[in-house]
């Protein structure tokens, strides 16, 4: 019985040692993960946007780390994180989650004030809905962004929005409205000497 007691004690000691090693290993892994996370909020948002198409799950984790920050991030940072998380959910086919994030992003917009960033983020929310197959919601947000850009005199920002509207009207088989959007976009491109979207617009016009 004495030997049994010694053996039992050794086993218990070994179990404790293994448990400590396991806990230490988990702590080291957590520390390594924390070190691999971009340090600043803006860096995490940039990393999220870089990963949202190819690594949507990683992008969601990065966005969540921003949204969980205390004190809360700025409205612009919250909007960036919501936009990235929403797009990532849409990429994964999670339509309800994507829709919630899109409208949470829209709720942040009034605090931004008139700016090109507000127009861009409105378009971002529309893009999330479009990707998630909510075409009606997407067209409403794209139209809202166009009106905001017009009110602010932001001509360059209107070009991609008009292209987005053209695509959506084509999907609704509203080909005349799509053609009007494309022609407006082309006219702006010519005036601003910004032809980045010209090739896809000309292609799409050939299909309408």
Characterise this structure:
- The chain has 208 residues and is mainly α.
- Helix content is 81%, strand content 0%.
- The longest helix is centred in the N-terminal third of the chain and has 35 residues.
- It is globular.
Order of helices and strands: HHHHHHHHHH
Distance between the termini: 91 Å
Class from helix and strand fractions: mainly alpha
User: Which shape, going by the Cα principal axes?
Assistant: globular
Share of residues in helices: over 70%
Count of strand segments = 0
Q: Ranges with pLDDT <50 over ≥5 residues?
A: 1-6, 19-35
Mean pLDDT: 87
Question: What profile does the largest beta sheet have?
Answer: none
Rg calculated over all Cα atoms? 25 Å
Oligomer: single chain
| Percent range for β-strand residues | under 5%
Key descriptive features of the protein:
single chain, 208 residues, mainly alpha, 81% helix, globular
Helices and strands in order:
Layout: H1 2-36, H2 41-51, H3 56-67, H4 75-91, H5 95-108, H6 116-131, H7 135-152, H8 155-171, H9 175-192, H10 198-207
């Amino acid at each position: 019985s004495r030997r049994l007691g010694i053996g039992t004690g050794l086993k218990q000691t070994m179990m404790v040692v293994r448990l400590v090693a396991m806990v230490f290993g988990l702590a080291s892994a957590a520390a390594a993960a924390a070190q691999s996370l971009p340090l600043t909020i803006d860096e995490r948002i940039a990393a999220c946007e870089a990963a949202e198409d190819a690594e949507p799950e990683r992008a969601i984790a990065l966005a969540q780390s921003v949204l969980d920050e205390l004190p809360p991030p700025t409205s612009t940072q919250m909007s960036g994180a919501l936009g990235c998380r929403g797009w990532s959910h849409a990429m994964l086919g999670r339509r309800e989650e994507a829709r919630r994030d899109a409208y949470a992003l829209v709720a942040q917009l009034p605090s931004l004030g008139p700016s090109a960033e507000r127009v861009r983020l409105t378009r971002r929310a529309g893009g999330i809905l479009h990707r998630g197959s909510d075409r009606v919601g997407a067209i409403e947000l794209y139209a809202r962004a166009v009106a905001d850009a017009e009110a602010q005199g932001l001509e360059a920002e209107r070009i991609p929005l008009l292209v987005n509207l053209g695509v959506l009207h084509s999907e609704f088989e509203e080909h005349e409205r799509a053609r009007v959007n494309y022609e407006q976009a082309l006219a702006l491109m010519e005036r601003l000497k910004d032809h980045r979207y010209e090739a896809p617009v000309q292609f799409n016009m050939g299909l309408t």
